[in-house]
Amino acid sequence: MELLLPFPRPLTPARFVERPHRFAVRCRLEADDANVECHLPDPGRLTDLLTPGRRLWLEGPFPPPRRLPWSVVLAETPGAFVHLVPARANALLPLALQAGALPDLLPPDTPHALQAEVTRGDARLDFLLTPEDAAPVLIEVKAAALRRGRAVCWPDAPSQRALKHLRHLRAQVEAGRRAALV
Length: 182
Description:
This protein has helices at about 90-100, 160-175; strands at about 10-20, 25-30, 35-40, 55-60, 70-75, 80-85, 110-120, 125-130, 135-140, 145-150, 150-155, 180. With about 180 residues, it is mainly beta.
């Protein structure tokens, strides 16, 4: 499988062992069967992904003073990788637009402007997409790590912050503007 968003250095395959707390997992490196402690950037429940023996992909090892020498960045599922670094989700949107993967937002090969970190009222939205010859679109990008059949779901746990974002997008649409959750 090809990754749309490449990593700066090769990743190390490992197998999930356990999750001692929200931001840490224990894995067994495939290369030498060593157990390692890993930082988990995604604090979501991830119950579908963090199952015994699941193949995970790690960045690292990182030198001290870092407490956990590895970071879990991908979970491998049949036919797909799931990115486990929510902070990198925003980097995928420009690549997806360029690849023509979101034709409802931007038809392929359409000239456009993309502005990050746009403030509207009391909210900060991830992007303002301004296609040539079309109305602008306010976009909020979220990392989705829960899968149900062919659908991915967000969030994977109750979240007041998630509700606030969705309510703001709905208010934009009700005011006659385009808005999207990606």
